[in-house]
């Protein structure tokens, strides 16, 4: 299970267990026990955190999902935006090895992450010092995902594909490829965090 999910999962699982015990004594409690058990099962699926064997590309996808856009940036970088649906794994991973140099929480709205206006949503902006220079990664909250949980702190050393944080119930993750790094993914392509390569290497 992903770290940082207990505030959501624990109350629902406890209520499901309690109503199941009561239902064994009085079948009327089954009306509450059944949906709570289903909700618990759904949350266990949503908050899964499978092990991954890192891919071989220089820059790896930080999130499971679908490439929403690949945009050249005025400073020469390329932004790759990955949309995470509620059915995707919600744990995000480091695109390459390095040192965390900055983690900034920026308040904002909660527009659906597939909407272009989501650029003003609540977010956590990461910077990593890597062999390719500074890498910026942005975790963006959406209409459902209203909590971003960083796992690391400034100064932490991070390995390729290491878990860095969680966006509860999906949203969007942007990674900025440095100038001169050509993206290898296209809009609509599915990505697997820590496995799918984002560059031609």
Descriptors for this entry?
11 strands, elongated, 201 residues, alpha+beta, 18% helix
Question: Can you give a write-up of this model?
Answer:
- Helix content is 18%, strand content 30%.
- It has 201 residues and is α+β, with helices and mostly antiparallel strands.
- The strands form two sheets. Strands 8-4-5-6-10-2-1-11 form an eight-stranded antiparallel β-sheet, with no helix packed on it. Strands 3-9-7 form a three-stranded antiparallel β-sheet, with no helix packed on it.
- A hairpin with a 5-residue loop joins strand 1 (65-72) and strand 2.
- The model has no long low-confidence stretch (mean pLDDT 83).
What is the structure about, briefly put?
The protein has 201 residues and is α+β, with helices and mostly antiparallel strands.
Average residue pLDDT: 83
Query: Which consecutive residue ranges, at least 5 long each, have pLDDT under 50?
Result: none
Spatial extent as radius of gyration: 19 Å
Total strand segments:
11
Count of helical stretches: 2
Write down the overall geometry: elongated
User: What's the helical proportion of residues?
Assistant: 10-25%
Briefly note the structural class of the backbone. alpha+beta
Biggest sheet, in brief?
A: 8 strands, antiparallel
Percentage of residues in strands: 25-35%
Ends apart, CA distance between termini: 32 Å
List the secondary-structure elements in sequence, H or E: HHEEEEEEEEEEE
- Please list the strands of the largest sheet in the order they lie side by side: 8-4-5-6-10-2-1-11
